């Protein structure tokens, strides 16, 4: 009788980084794959540089409540977003971090030094599935602009979580983005797709609980 | 590959209006309703319509009345602060019986409030915002699919009853995107205005003539054309010219109210979820109803008999159906993102022995399923809060 709650992803960063576009592109792709999707966003009056985030919820059935309190996946595109949202990640959730503005490019729980200064070690008690990569830095290096850092991230996300096939994602991007930027975006996705080798499927994060343990 | 597309609530509102035959939009940008204006500015010229950005909300509201009288279906969209400014014009549209649609994508208030946060604070303003005795139709959808569907209904009702229709939306619903499927043509009914040829040449066109007094049904307005008639916000007779006769005055005001009150069951739309055997009834509308549905799903899993009544037209509400439901339940929960604006309307109909629990929130966040679940648990275990 009780249906599954939808799987929730949050893209957080600051205004101008394209985290809402990331959510929209992913939501469109999920609909192509026959899923029920809700995409919502939060932003402030400060258009550039203000805190903003974008939530994507998806499920095999119609989603009643359009918000989520906790997330299966968190994608932080900015250090401030890590601090603001890390506590909303579910236990053993997947945590992507753009480490461009960190002192070290690594962001992992392997040793205390790999967590940059100022960040709570508590993150490691929530999850060990932390995937850090300097998306913005790499984007500037390869494409001389950081605007496609979000698409690079989306490519990486699709590789690691396998939420949608990469080809469907590319099709959606070709239709959503302005024509002259399609090639650039597709290249960025391809690059992002090759960044990580690990696989953490989102629908396998949930553990079966005992009856009465609600 | 599915038939669904990703659609934003505001976008669906604009596209629904165009589908319903709206060809004139006047508005002033305001978060969270700006996207409606954006889509209208892009799409209206393609179908031969006109989009104007006016100097403020007062001018937007009055110009759509003018456009509607001139013969085209018209609408405007705004949020709480702009809606306050439009109230005088809404009164004028009621008095002159001009079909218009006012979209209010609600945000936190009062005043400038919280532009990007949801609230259901304009429930009473939608009903009683303008002065004088009047009746009004207020539609309140819960999903993006419904926004499109009921926007067409809003235009149909406005045309049929010759009245302004207020279309309320939540900030979250306006800004969020979800699955959407364009309905097929056969699923859609669009009310059309009188054609010029249908007017009898030898007869004077009386725009305010109604069919009969017992159940007054106003005649539809004429499409863009030569039918000229007088329009006034003053008390007027059936020709539209001012007339301060007490009989005419009393008759007109009563007719304006009765034309909606007597057709309330025809106009009223509602949705129910698991009410067949419900002992506890939740009344919620808009986005809050979706939280209630999640809460009911969880509560039903614990064998608590709880159901949802969701008014889609919050004014007028289906009193017939609601009274039936209220007569057989033990406890009533009213959940809304304000401090109890709609509760009065419902409590008026409830039996005095019914336990009542209000769930209210004005913090700019949605009422969560957990909060409704807490209320269900509270009334279920007999520990009740007092109203």
Give the CATH topology of chain A: Pyruvate-ferredoxin Oxidoreductase, domain 3
SS element count, helices of chain A: 7
The CATH class assignment of the largest domain in chain B is Alpha Beta
* Silhouette of chain B: globular
Widest sheet, order of strands of chain A: 2-3-1-4-5-6
Q: What is the residue-mean pLDDT of chain B, rounded to a whole number? A: 90
Helix content of chain A: 25-40%
Which residue ranges of chain A are poorly predicted, with pLDDT under 50 across at least 5 consecutive positions? Answer: none
Which fold does the CATH topology of the largest domain in chain B refer to? Rossmann fold
- What share of residues are in beta strands of chain A? 15-25%
Mean pLDDT of chain A: 87
Give the helix/strand class of chain B. Answer: alpha/beta
Largest sheet of chain A: 6 strands, mixed
What is the spatial order of strands in the main beta sheet of chain B? 3-2-4-5-7-6-12
List how many beta strands of chain A DSSP finds: 6
Helix count of chain B equals 13
Element-level helix/strand string of chain A: EHEEEHEHEHHHH
The gross shape of chain A turns out to be globular
The CATH H-level superfamily of chain A is: Pyruvate-ferredoxin oxidoreductase, PFOR, domain III
């Amino acid at each position: 009788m009780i249906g599954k709650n939808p799987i929730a992803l949050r893209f957080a960063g600051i205004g101008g980084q394209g985290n809402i576009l990331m959510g929209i592109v992913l939501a469109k792709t999920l609909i192509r794959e026959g899923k029920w999707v809700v995409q919502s966003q939060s932003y402030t009056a400060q258009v550039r540089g203000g805190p903003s985030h974008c939530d994507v919820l998806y499920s095999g059935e119609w989603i009643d409540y359009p918000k989520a309190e906790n997330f299966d996946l968190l994608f932080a595109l900015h250090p401030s977003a890590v601090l603001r949202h890390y506590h909303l990640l579910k236990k053993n959730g997947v945590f992507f971090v753009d480490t461009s503005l960190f002192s070290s490019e690594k962001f992992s729980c392997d040793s205390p030094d790999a967590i940059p200064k100022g960040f709570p070690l508590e993150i490691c008690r929530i999850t060990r599935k932390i995937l850090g990569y300097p998306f913005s830095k790499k984007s500037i290096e390869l494409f001389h602009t950081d605007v496609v850092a979000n698409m690079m991230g989306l490519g990486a996300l699709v590789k690691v979580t396998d939420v949608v096939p990469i080809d469907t994602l590319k099709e959606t991007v070709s239709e959503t983005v302005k024509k002259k930027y399609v090639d650039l975006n597709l290249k960025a996705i391809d690059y992002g797709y090759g960044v990580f080798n690990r696989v953490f499927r989102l629908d396998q994060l949930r553990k079966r609980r005992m009856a009465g343990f609600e | 590959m599915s038939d669904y597309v990703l659609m934003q609530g505001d976008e669906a509102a604009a596209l629904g209006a165009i589908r319903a035959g709206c060809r004139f939009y006047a508005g002033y940008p305001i978060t969270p309703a700006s996207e409606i204006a954006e889509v209208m500015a892009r799409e209206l010229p393609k179908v031969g319509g006109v989009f104007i950005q006016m100097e403020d909300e007062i001018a937007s509201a009055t110009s759509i009345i003018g456009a509607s009288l001139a013969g085209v279906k018209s609408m405007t969209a705004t949020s709480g602060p702009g809606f306050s400014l439009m109230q005088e014009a809404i009164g004028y549209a009621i008095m002159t019986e001009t079909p218009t649609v006012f979209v209010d994508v609600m945000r936190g208030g009062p005043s400038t409030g919280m532009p990007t946060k949801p609230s259901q604070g304009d429930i009473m303003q939608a009903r009683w915002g303008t002065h004088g005795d009047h009746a009004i139709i207020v539609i309140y959808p819960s999903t993006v699919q419904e926004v499109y569907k009921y926007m067409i209904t809003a235009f149909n009702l406005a045309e049929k009853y010759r009245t302004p229709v207020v279309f309320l939306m939540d900030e979250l619903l306006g800004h969020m995107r979800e699955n959407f499927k364009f309905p097929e043509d056969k699923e859609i009914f669009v009310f059309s205005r009188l054609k010029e040829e249908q007017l009898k040449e030898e007869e004077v066109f009386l725009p305010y003539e109604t069919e009969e007094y017992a159940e007054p049904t106003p005649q539809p307005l004429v499409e863009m054309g030569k039918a000229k008639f007088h329009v006034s916000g003053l008390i007027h007779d059936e020709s539209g010219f001012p007339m301060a006769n007490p009989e005419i005055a009393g008759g007109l005001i009563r007719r304006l109210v009765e034309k909606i009150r007597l057709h309330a069951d025809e106009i009223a739309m509602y949705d129910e979820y698991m009410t067949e055997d419900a002992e506890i009834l939740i009344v919620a509308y808009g986005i809050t109803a979706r939280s209630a549905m999640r809460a009911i799903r969880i509560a039903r899993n614990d064998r608590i008999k709880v159901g949802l009544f969701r008014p889609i037209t919050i004014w007028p509400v289906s009193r017939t159906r609601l009274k039936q439901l209220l007569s057989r339940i033990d406890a009533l929960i009213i959940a809304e993102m304000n401090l109890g604006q709609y509760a009065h309307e419902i409590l008026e109909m409830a039996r005095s022995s019914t336990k009542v629990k209000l769930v209210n929130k004005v913090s700019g966040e949605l009422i969560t399923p957990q909060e409704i679940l807490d209320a269900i648990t509270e009334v279920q275990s007999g520990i009740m809060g007092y109203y």
